[in-house]
Write a structure and sequence with these properties.
By secondary structure, this protein is α/β, with parallel strands linked by helices. The chain contains ten helices and twelve strands. Bound molecules: NADP nicotinamide-adenine-dinucleotide phosphate.
């Protein structure tokens, strides 16, 4: 009988995400077991239980997946899991809290494709404003874009203080410099977007962060993407289905949540499948998600 592919799905929350369970089984896992309300200091014991229960050559057929809704905690859990491995005993490790790693990866990959193919620009040549960067999707999108060399501003809807802490954390953890800016009024947001070429909107579902008039006033804008699929849209005038459609009254192109969504799903599926097919155990975070997503959006 073939050796089974077994996934242990851990979350700090009360429930693992049914989305992730379905995705893992569809990608080919034989078994997905949820572990809920898991704390960081429990990761070592759980991972060592996973690895010591099978001979070392089957480590590659075991995996742990971290959910939740906190990017930093998920990254800490990945690090704790890596430290818990005892070679030659290993296993695959992946995180995608609230789908954020793969959503952010897909969003930035779609923007990169549009910049390249429609505006002859690269991420490293553009300035980007990220809305919702205290959330999981916005945090990852800002880091991915900054790691690619973009000049990134993270916009605080309630002022500069909280995004400044995020910026410090991004610097400490990933060595990237992002600029925290105060977006606590419509006037401040208009000024911020007047100075950037790309807008990434990753704010709370059902919250409009910029009006159509604010987008029209953004004279340098090339591309704007929004991952909020719940009306009203985060960026007024960019339809959820928009896939490189011109934003009315501008020469910029818009990308909506339902153009990004399928890329997100393909990316998560692809990473899960990669763990199943790997010959050596993998450790996958949003950087791996982005590398995969940019090949999928072509
Ligand atoms: N298309 C897809 O495939 C997909 C997948 C996953 C998520 N999403 C969407 O992505 C977006 C972000 O998700 P998430 O999980 O990162 O959410 P989240 O963790 O709740 O973060 C939401 C962000 O929006 C900010 N925010 C709250 N109220 C705001 C306001 N009035 N104006 C501006 N910003 C405001 C939050 O700030 P605070 O820190 O103050 O709360 C936070 O930075 C959501 O719209 C979600 O539905 C899309």
């Amino acid at each position: 009988m073939a050796d089974k592919n077994i996934l242990h799905m851990l979350t700090p929350h009360k429930h693992v995400s049914p989305f992730d369970v379905n995705m893992a089984l569809d990608a080919g896992y034989d078994s997905v077991t949820p572990y809920e309300e898991v704390e960081l200091d429990e990761i070592t014991d759980l991972v060592q239980d996973v690895i010591f229960s099978r001979p070392p050559h089957l480590g590659v057929k075991s995996a742990v997946f971290f959910g939740g809704d906190d990017a930093v905690l998920a990254l800490d859990m990945i690090e704790a899991a890596k430290k818990a491995l005892v070679p030659p005993f290993g296993c695959n490790i992946m995180a995608d809290p609230a789908g954020s790693f793969t959503t952010a990866a897909a969003m930035v990959a779609c923007v990169e494709r549009t910049l390249k193919t429609k505006k002859q620009r690269q991420l490293k040549d553009v300035s980007i404003a990220v809305f919702g960067a205290t959330g999981v999707v916005g945090y990852c999108a800002a880091v991915i874009a900054a790691m690619e060399g973009a000049s990134v501003k993270i916009v605080g809807h309630d002022g500069r203080e909280r995004v400044a802490k995020r910026a410090e954390e991004m610097k400490h953890r990933f060595g990237v410099d992002v600029e925290p800016v105060d977006g606590s009024s419509a006037e401040k947001n208009t000024a911020i977007v007047g100075d950037v070429e790309v807008i990434l909107a990753a704010a709370k579902a059902g919250v409009q962060v910029l009006s159509a008039d604010q987008l029209k006033a953004a004279s340098k804008l090339l591309v704007a993407a929004d991952v909020n699929a719940v009306p009203p849209m985060g960026l007024e005038g960019i339809d959820v289905m928009a896939d490189e459609q011109e934003i009315a009254g501008t020469r910029a192109l818009g990308i909506g949540a339902l153009a990004i969504g399928p890329m997100k799903s393909k990316t998560e599926y692809g990473l899960l499948k990669r763990m199943i097919e790997a010959e050596e155990p993998q450790a996958l975070d949003f950087r791996d998600a982005f590398q995969l997503a940019r090949t999928l959006v072509q």
